Amino acid sequence: MNVAIPIWNHRVSPVFDTARRLLIVPIENGEEQPERNECILNESDFFNRVKQLQLLEIDLLICGAISKPLHESIQNNGIKVISHVCGFVEEILEAYCTDQIQQERFLMPGCCGQRRNRLQRRRSNCEKNGRKKGAST
Questions:
Q1: How far apart (Å, rounded) are the C-alpha atoms in residues 99 and 20?
Q2: Which residue, 1, 36, 69, 81, could crosslink 59 as a Cys pair with Cβ 3.0–4.6 Å?
Q3: Where are the domains of the chain?
């Protein structure tokens, strides 16, 4: 399996749509293989960017923020996407290989998952205090 991560300063690039460098890492049986490859993403429009991922034989894209049309197009072309990921590339690869990439520390700040968790905690606290769900505190 070829895993691709857009990179910037040894970290996951914050926005895939505008990323310029891509690290490609083969992973077999949950272990990173030594044949890493780095390439330049030349294409800026999402159709050609998806085509470039296909030509590179990418199976999985791990990225930060990504526009909805690009995300859907990548997935519709058979490439799995794990988005809203942040952190140092080496830590992300290790987390993926050990099935720990869903940890909150790898979730981009302000991501929908964090907001959703905050809202659920707030609603739970309101219910405990006898207030109606969604009522302002």
A1: 27
A2: 1
A3: 2-107
Say if CB 107 and CB 84 are below 8 A apart.
Answer: yes
Indicate the SS3 state at residue 8.
strand
- Within 10 A of 39 (CB to CB), how many other CB atoms are there? 13
Q: How many C-beta neighbours within 10 Å does residue 127 have?
A: 11
Q: What gap in Å lies between CA 5 and CA 64, rounded to an integer?
A: 9
pLDDT digits (tens, 9 = 90+) for 97-120: 999 998 999 998 875 554 444 434
pTM of the predicted structure, to 2 decimals: 0.79
Is the pLDDT confidence value at 39 over 60? yes
Identity of residue 98: T
**Within 10 Å of residue 101's Cβ, how many Cβ atoms?**
18
